[in-house]
Design goal:
Layout: H1 9-12, E1 18-24, H2 32-51, E2 60-66, H3 71-84, E3 88-91, H4 95-108, E4 112-114, E5 130-132, H5 137-150, E6 155-160, H6 164-178, E7 183-188, H7 194-203, E8 208-212, H8 219-227, E9 236-238, H9 247-253, E10 262-264, H10 272-285, H11 291-310, H12 314-319, E11 326-328, E12 331-333, E13 335-336, E14 344-346, E15 352-357, E16 360-369
Parallel strand pairs: 1-2, 1-3, 3-4, 4-5, 5-14, 6-7, 6-8, 8-9
Antiparallel strand pairs: 10-15, 11-12, 13-14, 15-16
Helix pairs in contact: 2-10, 2-11, 3-4, 5-6, 7-8
Length: 370
């Protein structure tokens, strides 16, 4: 008996779509490049899910909203997406924005898998509705503080702008350094210009300066000022939040942007899935994918697995967080309750401290892992 050929994937997914809302910073003052990478990862995974038959024969659809790093805009987008009937929310890069989105999602009973934001207190109270892939800020930044101390830096200056995220980072660094006899000197970027930052570094005998500021400005101007000040030739510049990860950094700073250690969330070596996804992301982006692109891909991979197993009912999705066991691009993803963290947390994705190689700024050097 002749068996007719099975219809192509697009036919198999002809039913009404299963929608996921995606929150992504795509315009200033958001980190546009981070948003582009996050979206590339989300879209690639959706494309692959649909090629494999979708969710029980229904196509998976991504409904994208630009948050522009604005918490109020993000909260309004959550309201809109909830009314549109999305099964779940995904994404967001900026911690303060993700916090607003998480609070709104929690109050509406809308599952939110946060891809990239790290603020420990993503919600004020423990919630069943929100899960997160990125490691908590305290986890990554404690590792970063350990790297600084190991490299002999115990007088650290932070050039900080006012924000819950930067204040939280400063607190983590201060606690870690104080425990080992170190000091954190705060430089308020609301009051200082880059030249004054240089004077303060000399005056306070700081051996390292951390950029807890927006990108590209004032971060780029501060780097240029410090790099070109003869008095500060031995000062290490660091950027735990990951500004140097993106190509715009290298384009704006050239050689000055190298040897500035930052955090990224990748294993030392990608497994077969990670390597295949890296190739596909590179093709989509036209450049090497950042860890943020992998976070986007893993987010949809987890949500698709949950949707296949538990359907598109919001309450059932939220109930499934503790039962997730999915192979992601950077390891096996499972969520648990972690002390001090109010959401379901993957504990932990691999963490590295890396920098751009001064001999070849397009290449990254792994300095420390945890």
């Amino acid at each position: 008996m002749h068996t007719p050929p099975s219809p192509p994937a697009t036919k198999r997914t002809a039913g009404s779509s299963v929608r996921i809302g995606a929150l992504v910073p795509l315009t200033r003052p958001g980190w546009i490049e981070a948003g582009r990478h996050l979206l590339a990862g989300l879209e690639l995974a959706v494309h692959e899910v649909n090629d494999a038959g979708g969710i029980g024969g229904r196509p998976l659809e991504l409904v994208v909203r630009d948050t522009a790093a604005d918490p109020q805009r993000a909260a309004a987008a959550v309201d809109e997406l909830a009314l549109m009937g999305v099964a779940a929310l995904a994404g967001e890069y900026h911690s303060v924005v993700a916090r607003a989105a998480a609070a709104r999602a929690d109050s509406l009973g809308l599952p939110f898998l946060c891809s990239s934001a790290v603020l420990d207190a993503l919600t004020d109270q423990p919630t069943e509705w929100v899960a997160r892939l990125a490691p908590a800020q305290s986890h990554g930044w404690q590792l970063y503080a350990g790297f600084l101390l190991g490299a002999g830096h115990n007088r650290i200056a932070v050039a900080a702008q006012p924000s819950v995220y930067w204040a939280s980072g400063t607190g983590i660094l201060r606690d870690c350094l104080a425990a080992r006899g170190g000091t954190v000197i705060e430089l308020d970027m609301g009051e200082l210009d880059p030249a004054s930052v240089c004077d303060q570094l000399v005056e306070n005998r700081a051996t390292a300066l951390l950029l807890l500021t927006g990108h590209p400005e004032p971060a780029v101007s501060i780097v240029k000022a410090v790099r070109h000040d003869q008095r500060l030739a031995e000062v290490l510049i660091g950027a735990p939040a990951g500004q140097p990860e993106f190509t715009e950094w290298a384009r704006l700073l050239g050689d000055d942007g190298a040897a500035i250690p930052f955090l990224r969330y990748l294993p030392e070596r990608l497994g077969p899935l990670g390597a295949r996804v890296e190739t596909a992301l590179r093709e989509r982006l036209g450049e090497a994918p950042s860890f943020v692109a992998f976070e986007g891909y893993d987010t949809v991979t987890v949500l698709a697995d949950v949707l296949r197993s538990h359907g598109a009912d919001r309450a059932r999705i939220a109930e499934s967080w503790p039962r997730v066991a999915v192979e992601g691009t950077r390891g096996q993803i499972q969520f648990s309750r972690t002390p001090g963290i109010s959401v379901w947390q993957w504990a932990w994705t691999p963490v590295q401290v890396v920098d751009r190689d001064p001999a070849e700024p397009g290449r990254f050097r792994i300095l420390h892992t945890g």
